[in-house]
Amino acid sequence: MYPPQPSPVSFEHLPDGLGVGVAAPRLTWTLPPGSGRQQAYEVEVDRAGSVRRTGRVDDDTHVLVPWPGEPLASRERAEVRVRVWTPDAAEPTAWSGPRAVEAGLLAPTDWQAVPVGAGWDEDPEAERRPARVRKDFRLDRPVAYARLYVSAHGLYEAEINGRRVGDETLAPGWTVYPHRLRYRTHDVTEHLTEGANTIGAWLGDGWYRGKYGFDGGTRNIYGTDQALIAQLEVRYRDGATLVIATDGTWTAAPGPILTSGLYEGETFDARLHDPHWCTPSAARTAVDAWTPVRTGRRDPATLVAPMGPPVRRTEEIAPVSLTRTEDGRHLLDFGQNLVGRLSITADGPAGTTVVLRHAEVLERGALATRPLREAYAIDTLILSGEGPLTWEPRFTLHGFRYAEVTGWPGELTADMVTARVYHTDMRRTGWFECSDPLVNRLHENVVWSTRGNFVDIPTDCPQRDERLGWTGDIQVFAPTASFLYDCAGMLDSWLTDVGLEQLPDGTVPWYVPVIPGAPMWTPIHPGAAWGDAAVLTPWTLHQRFGDIGLLRRHYPMAKKWVDLVERLAGPTRLWDTGFQLGDWLDPAAPPEDPAAGVTDRYLVATAYFAHSARHLGRAAAALGQAADSDRYTTLATEVTEAFRRRYVLPSGRMTSDSPTAYALGIAFDLLTPEQRRDAGDRLAQLVLADDARIATGFVGTPLICDALTDTGHLDVAYRLLLQTECPSWLYTVTQGATTIWERWDSLRPDGSLNPGGMTSFNHYALGAVADWLHRVVGGITATGPGYRDIAFRPRPGGGITWARTRHETPYGTAALAWELTATGLTARCTVPEGARAVAELPGCPPISLGPGEHVLEGAAISAVAV
Ligand code: BGC
User: Fold this and answer.
1) Is the N or the C terminus of the chain less surrounded, counting Cβ atoms within 10 Å?
2) Distance from the CA of 581 to the center of ligand 1, in angstroms?
3) Which atom of ligand 1 is nearest to the CA of 530?
4) How far apart are CA 149 and CA 166, in angstroms?
5) Residue 146: its pLDDT value, please?
6) Domain residue ranges in the chain
7) Angle, vertex CA 395, rays to CA 251 and CA 374, nearest 5
8) Which CATH architecture does the domain made up of 10-102 adopt?
């Protein structure tokens, strides 16, 4: 048996330590089983053989612990390990396994590379054929190691000697490019050989210069060029170094990709592809005309390292059915609405053109492409006639369950095509399962909508001509997402961009990055629930991941937002002016006007004002800013009082007698105890009067089950959850949904598609109920940052007889499995080492639990609402 040891450390929120963008990366480790908690730790940092130890540090922190000692220099590598002291052992544990961390290029002066792309003239208003760029070079001595630092204007896929570098897709991702362009660091030692070498890259338009956005899209949002920025740094065994950076000595040629767009899809002409194009081999043919590149400009101070994992292929799915239509087309069903693209293996005469079209749903047996609007999602392969070719597009993604194939040479069989699933490759951290199969499918749909919409930025939808970082959508969904996946790094990066796009007066854009919009979104107006992402999302991430640094960095943005709303509201403390989306997509709103719900949109706005002010006060307190904490807490109280005066009638009814209004009042704690009780009763009454069909949109839906639960109407919350008539969560499941829909009736009971201009079948916002599933049905709630304090508070009901919920917290596994037995409720709780928990089983006094496993035979059956 090995001596117990902590886990190897991890750095920031990164999956590995290569190419970190901060000189002092914070360290996280988990404790060995049975240690209870940490009393002290010691970190050892080995920098090229010079070993430094911190000595014993009496501190119980082991999540995001400050970097010990000198900051890292650019490119500097260190090996880090840790050991800890725990209460029951006199000796420290054994050292953890070592983990390497290596800084990226931290200073602008580290960069020699300049953007290089097509040297030929391009018409910026037309569809442009993407370029490939390359350079031949020699290595005259044995190589010790090599790194490639790489980014692009547009998208890139790099190769060295015919071998792909890395496995990410849609790199460098989407950030506010003028301020932040991500580069990634790759270890390319194994790609190189002594002698002749070639480095090159495929380029695509992507978000940088591709057509993107509403109403046909806008080209060249960030620039007209398409260019690689790459710096290969080779260290020879004798210690000498060589740098091959993109510069005027590179060459470019039009590639075999004829057109490529994130929305449009991609066309690839295999006849124009020389497979040796990126090798120094003599077999390299001259199908491409290579000419000198044009060099461009990029301020190296804007090149930033990733804060989270990249977009990658995470799964392959075979078709569940393949049908041939009378006119020779093939219709494929993958059984799952997903985000990705097809990989096909085709063989046929030169010039054969295979066309792939995609859609989320069928209408009368054919692809329903209307909801895609102007995102055509068509991929085309032209065969070279030189034998079987396995191909998938490079610089596009589609949201689809169905695909149609035309022009296939010969017989198409299921083994010739697979769907490849792509998204930001976050670590899965949350699972939920219960005795109700429909609820399980609903939860699975939430997971799939998370996957499909966490594609470098958090998007509204993955299929139509939108796919934007809508602030309101992630604001309501972040609590769910942060349970299911380790999304801290990705959302931290996106929030950094929200801060950059925030207007000087504090306005938070509707979507980030900002692109030219339809008239409704331009100029940007401040809007409640959307703009509040600036306050509430950093708060959520701090609660779930225990990252006070993240809260601190985004605090100025949060404050600017609340200060703006305070000015807009003026002395009345009521935000009752201007453009608001209200309870967006309330099912009572007409399809063509989703903002016209039944809840007064200014009631929504003032409720959010109070809620954000209160959370800002809490954030200030957590950051040790006492004056701010007082100021915003007082502001929150004043807004709350104004809200009551304006929106709660003496009878206890609210001016909008709607579920969303009551849910807001209760969940945002805006009511007196008496009003709260009345509001809970009225809410339950309204829900039951509508036979527990849902009557809330983006704002009310994430809150309504909590509002019912917290006012003694758990049974009504379960009725809402378990309703299968339209509109309801499970209606979508009974209609065969495999993702969460944008509208409650994206597919209507008569089988027709909702006629609204926005009809997506993959929108996570209404899936925010999964947070309630995790906390209330499953019973796991973070009561302290990073789940260091946990409440196990399951509230069984709705005939559900068991639930199993698990979350990989920063401290380790938290789990709760409960089941109803003949005599009561049995709960198995797992508390992570270093954390503490309180079990609050129905009808039982709270019990404190330390780390480890606990079986509680608690509640008598009478206490459990069945
Ligand atoms: C998006 C939403 C977004 C909304 C703003 C829609 O087009 O898909 O999810 O939040 O606009 O109102």
Assistant:
1) N
2) 9
3) 10
4) 11
5) 98
6) 10-102, 108-255+274-304, 311-424, 486-647, 785-865
7) 125
8) Sandwich (2.60)
Q: How far apart are CA 214 and CA 216, in angstroms?
A: 6
Give 274-329 pLDDT, tens digit per residue. Answer: 999 999 987 787 656 899 999 999 999 999 999 999 999 999 999 999 999 888 89
Cα torsion angle, 87, 88, 93, 96, sign = negative
- Say which of 102, 466, 501, 840 is annotated catalytic: 466
Residue type, 798: G
Instruction: Please give the distance, rounded to the nearest whole angstrom, from the Cα atom of residue 340 to the centre of ligand 1.
Output: 22
CATH number for the segment(s) 311-424: 2.60.120.260
Contact 160, 218 (CB under 8 A): no
CA distance linking residue 334 with residue 154, whole number of Å: 30
CATH number for the domain whose boundaries are 486-647: 1.50.10.10
- pLDDT tens digits, 331-389: 999 999 999 999 999 999 999 999 999 999 999 999 999 999 999 999 999 999 999 99
Distance in angstroms (rounded) separating the CA atoms of residues 760 and 372? 8
Task: Please name the residues in contact with 845: beta carbons below 8 A apart, sequence gap of 6 or more.
Answer: none
Q: Does the Cβ of 233 fall within 6 Å of ligand 1?
A: no
Q: Is 433 one of the annotated active-site residues of the chain?
A: no
Q: Say if residues 507 and 526 touch (Cβ distance below 8 Å).
A: yes
- pLDDT confidence of residue 287: 59
* Intrachain domains 311-424 and 785-865 with the same fold: no
Closest residue by CA, ligand 1 atom 8: 460
In this structure, what DSSP letter does residue 774 have? I
Tens digits of residue pLDDT in 721-744 = 999 999 999 999 999 999 999 999
Ligand 1 in contact with 460 (CB < 6 A)?
yes
Residues in Cβ contact with 833 at an 8 Å cutoff, skipping those fewer than 6 apart: 30, 31, 32, 33, 34, 35, 36, 37, 811, 812, 851, 852
- What residue's CA is closest to ligand 1, atom 2? 460
Fold that domain 108-255+274-304 belongs to in CATH:
Jelly Rolls (2.60.120)
Fold of 785-865: Maltose phosphorylase, domain 3 (2.60.420)
Give the relative orientation of helices 471-484 and 533-545 as an angle to the nearest 10 degrees: 10
Q: Could you tell me if the CB of 160 is within 6 A of ligand 1?
A: no
Tens of pLDDT, residue by residue over 665-713, are 999 999 999 999 999 999 999 999 999 999 999 999 999 999 999 999 9
- The pTM score is 0.97
Closest ligand 1 atom to 595 CA: 12
Shortest-distance Cα residue to atom 3 of ligand 1: 470
Ligand 1, residue 473: give the atom nearest the CA: 10
Q: Is the CB of 521 under 6 A from ligand 1?
A: no
